[in-house]
Amino acid sequence: MKDLEKMLNQATELCLEGEFKEAITLYDKILSTNPEHLDALIDKGVALQNLGKFKLALKCFQQATELSPENVTALLNEGTALHGLGKFDDAIIRYEKALFLDDKCAMALAYKGLSLGEKGMISDALDCFKQALAIDDTYDMAQISKDVAEKLLKESQDTIRKKS
């Protein structure tokens, strides 16, 4: 058991250094010993996602949510993989499940906002970013996304005014 945790820590360090392929090798070793190692599944998915391998990442996250349906981290990551595959409605469902489990999850709100924005629902996206910032006013991604959404809405309103 200590060996698995040691390998997990090494894999985490490799990810922090951007060595995702090497980290995946360690995650695979952990998972060959314990196929239900939740942290290894999630972290392997994150490493795969960083390599742009969204379908493989999604499989890891789906396994994690099957093992632990109320794991907010697994749900968030499943949502980000779906978002990366352009499946915004499915991603939003995962973020909403995460919010059902933790209504103060600023990350779920911000990510939901990103998916809504991709669907062209800028006003709804902006609401999500504002809610995320109400929970965590130092959340940079939510602040940047909020600023972009406000700019897009203003430009849209200006265009409408010019046409009328």
Automatic annotation (TrEMBL):
- Where along the sequence do coiled-coil regions lie? none
Q: Which species does this protein come from?
A: Candidatus Nitrosotenuis cloacae
Question: What PANTHER family does this protein's entry cite?
Answer: CELLULOSE SYNTHASE OPERON PROTEIN C, TPR REPEAT-CONTAINING PROTEIN MJ0263
Under Pfam families, the record lists: TPR_16
**What's the protein called, per UniProt?**
Uncharacterized protein
Q: Which SMART domains match?
A: TPR (SM00028)
Q: Where are the TPR repeats?
A: 38-71, 72-105
> The organism sits in which domain of life?
Archaea
